[in-house]
Write a structure and sequence with these properties.
elongated, two-stranded antiparallel sheet
Length: 153
């Protein structure tokens, strides 16, 4: 009971070796709510990269690669103009699902507030845009349409 006569909504921890946050033990790690530098962070999965520099570099590489793939999917023509309309709709849907899934994974990785993750995500999007947009036919032919419209913020 709190001082206003109501029930306290604070969760009670039954564990002594970790604090409870949303029903999950934090295993002694503090969640950052501001940008920070360092390899001691959680990126996408519980226990990953696990205080290991090699795994942190692997996580950064994964975020970088996903960012490049998002731009590749956004700026590459996969469907030929003479494709059956039903097949074209199905392929558009699958490409959209893949692009959005990757974009949400990058966004969730960014929610670690790790400055390294932020930098590789932005760098991946920038390099992906540069290589795939400027090397595609659409840059040379200004009225060329992509399979998917670019994502808007």
């Amino acid at each position: 009971m709190d001082m206003h006569g109501g029930m306290s909504m604070a969760p009670k921890s039954s564990s002594t070796n970790g604090t409870m946050m949303g029903g999950h033990k934090m295993r002694g790690m503090m969640m950052h709510m501001t940008f920070f530098w360092g390899k001691d962070t959680l990126i996408l999965f519980d226990g990953f990269p696990s205080h290991n520099t090699a795994y942190y570099v692997l996580a950064l590489f994964m975020v970088f690669t996903m960012s490049i793939l998002i731009e590749f999917i956004s700026h590459t023509r996969f469907i030929k103009p003479d494709t059956n309309p039903m097949v074209a709709r199905l392929l558009h849907t699958l490409l959209h699902v893949l692009r959005m899934g990757l974009a949400y994974l990058v966004m969730l990785a960014l929610m670690s507030f790790n400055a390294g993750v932020f930098l590789v995500a932005v760098l991946g999007h920038a390099l992906g845009f540069f290589f795939f947009f400027f090397s595609s036919r659409s840059f040379k032919e200004p009225h060329q349409r992509f399979d998917l419209p670019p994502m808007a913020c």
